[in-house]
Specification:
CATH topology of the largest domain: D-Maltodextrin-Binding Protein, domain 2
Distance between the termini: 43 Å
Number of strands: 13
Strand content: 5-15%
Structural class: alpha/beta
Largest sheet: 4 strands, mixed
Strand order of the largest sheet: 3-2-4-12
Number of domains: 2
Helix content: 40-55%
Shape: globular
Number of helices: 20
Length: 474
């Protein structure tokens, strides 16, 4: 079984998920044109029951009652650069077409190229698909290209991303949840257990440092996006936990980056980063697996995409995982559905039959057996309220379970849309400034001052609160 799951893990390209995590707050229950919680489980269950008979028939590939008044055709495109994704989508479309004989979904191949460019090209030549995997959701919502999804679909998910109170995409998986990935055999040899509090985590790091045979943490600071993992953890602890609309308030001018919560973010990271390996600033992300499997570091803080990389380097490596508690005792994780997912063209939705067929196709994709196949094949954390029973590595299941019990799930701090969306390039400036503070080449007050100056310039060209530059932002 382990070989089977490993093979599935190794076939999927995790780069997109990784960059989304680094490049993509709210607790599950907060919405400020960003993440919003799904409806209660009871609501989702009730709505699922309403479609029970038809869903059961469709899931088994049986013909169901008609939902259209005449034969209807839909075009569908998705990011087909991954063989696993192609296998999943071809299977789902084949089963859907068999279950709904009066609806024909046709996949238009992208030939594995750059998906965002492919979709832009289709749009520019008047061939925008009826249903699609949407990644640049904000861009197409602003352009009026997408149709809002009905409540029964939105309520299938733990969290969704709303634009002015409307949801336009059905998240195909949860965000790339981060946590501590550790050398379980090394922990067992030394009698160490997973920390239950933030203070216990710091104490654990100190014990490993005192032992002296390996670094407590490995950090790939040469790749600036890698710093986003740790930054978001501390920013979530110190800023978002107190003000989910901090960025919006910075646009409004009622707050700025001299705020004490921002300084507390830097202080938390200074405490943690003293346990990183020597030379962490010049270590690329691609080398952190080497540190782990060669007993040079005991822990890393990253996403689930690292499981496959570690096992590829050493199939016998015993992976452990835990979420790092926040200083206030809460567990805050990156997770839930992001802004991307399955979406419906606004033009297609003008035709009642196409609209009904497209919505039914999305419901069909998230039926338990279909969604189970997708999640297992793509090593995806389920985004739905009712998670399918997955056959995966135990450590991966631990991550899934943690997202079920976390105090909050959110996208990365730079993954919000709407009034909490960052100006272009501000993320990278934040990470560069963070590294300067951690290295001691810039003091706290100077860092906050530079952040405020850069923010002021950025918001002159992009301000979603006033609408400045929003239509041109991509």
């Amino acid at each position: 079984m382990k070989k089977k799951v490993l093979a599935a893990l190794l076939t999927v390209s995790m780069t997109a998920a990784m960059l989304a995590g680094c490049g993509s707050n709210t607790s599950a229950g907060t919405a400020a044109e960003g993440s919003s919680s799904a409806g209660a489980e009871g609501t989702a269950a009730s709505q699922a029951a309403e479609a029970g008979t038809q869903a059961a028939q469709a899931e088994e590939g049986e013909s169901t009652g008609s939902i259209v008044t005449e034969p209807t055709e839909l075009t569908f495109i998705f990011a087909d650069g991954d063989e696993g994704a192609k296998e999943v989508m071809n299977s789902v479309v084949e089963k859907f077409n068999a279950a709904y004989p009066d609806i024909t979904v046709t996949i238009e191949p992208g030939n594995g190229g750059a998906y965002s460019e492919f979709l832009k090209t289709k749009d520019s030549v008047g061939e925008f698909p009826d249903v699609m995997e949407m990644r640049d959701t904000a861009v197409y919502v602003r352009a009026g290209k997408l149709e809002p999804l009905p409540d029964d679909i939105v309520n299938l998910f733990k969290t969704t991303t709303a634009f002015a109170g409307k949801v336009y995409s059905a998240p195909m998986s949860g965000e790339n949840t981060q946590g501590i990935i550790y050398n379980k055999a090394y922990f067992d040899e030394n009698g160490w257990t997973e920390p239950a509090t933030y203070d216990e985590f710091i104490e654990l790091c100190q014990q490993i440092k005192d032992k002296g045979d390996m670094a407590p943490l490995v950090v790939g600071g040469q790749d600036i996006w890698h710093m986003g993992f740790w930054f978001h953890k501390a920013y979530n602890d110190q800023v978002l936990s107190k003000d989910a609309d901090f960025i919006k308030h910075c646009y409004e001018g009622t707050k700025d980056f001299s705020d004490e919560s921002v300084k507390a973010t830097f202080e938390e990271l200074k405490e943690i980063m003293q346990y990183a390996q020597d030379g962490w600033v010049s270590t690329p992300d691609a080398q952190i697996t080497t540190f782990m499997v060669n007993d040079m570091a005991a822990m890393m803080y990253s996403g689930t995409h690292m499981f496959s990389q570690i096992l590829a380097a050493d199939p016998d490596f015993e992976i452990g995982w835990f979420a790092v508690p926040s200083p206030d005792g809460k567990t805050r994780l990156v997770g839930g559905g992001g802004a991307g997912g399955l979406a419906i063209s606004a033009e297609a939705a003008k035709d009642p039959n196409k609209k009904a067929a497209a919505e039914e196709f999305i419901r069909f994709f998230f039926q338990p057996e279909n969604y189970k196949f997708h999640c297992e094949k793509m090593s995806a954390i389920p985004a739905t309220v009712e998670s399918p029973d997955l056959d995966v590595l135990p450590v991966f299941q631990e991550v899934i379970d943690a997202t079920e019990t976390a105090d909050s799930l959110s996208p990365m701090w730079n993954g919000f849309v709407g009034e909490n969306e960052l100006p272009p390039d501000f993320r990278n400036f934040m990470y560069k400034t963070l590294i300067e503070v951690l290295q001691g080449t810039r003091d706290m007050d100077s860092a906050c001052s530079e952040l405020n100056k850069t923010w002021k310039v950025g918001m002159e060209n992009f301000n979603p609160v006033t609408g400045e530059g929003v239509d041109n932002a991509e």
